[in-house]
Amino acid sequence: MSVAVARLVGIAGLSVVASTGSALLRCLPWVPDLRAVERGVRQHDELRATAGVTLDELLALIDEGAVVVDARPASAFDERHLAAPQTFVINVPAAEFDARLPQLRDFEGCRFVLYCSSEGCDSSAEVYAAMVNVGFDSADLFIYFPGWEGIVEAGLETVE
Known about the structure:
The chain is an alpha/beta fold. Helix content is 53%, strand content 11%.
């Protein structure tokens, strides 16, 4: 093989490797979109300030008959969830919101208090946003951000 042909084969090979590597790099999230991260943090903080409730406020809302929405996956809800015999406790996982919307509509006009797994869980915030998007009044929606972990830690009654 001549030197010229060898160079062409080498250049073609490097070209394929470079273009494949470039395509792979474009698909990998090496650098996060810092503006999007900051926007998400800001929205979370705003939601916490406007809709977040303390343990005492959660208990007061339940005593007043607010519908409790457990936004955890159905398997977690079925295993154990908050017991609130004076009101309804329903399961509306964020991923199943559309399918569970008719159940929520049965309680339209009520106040709702939502929770998910823990402080780091966004499912209750996702259900909150979805409820607002379909016409529920945000003034009637509250989130207990400590979630299931906070319920267990506080020693509240739970049920299987």
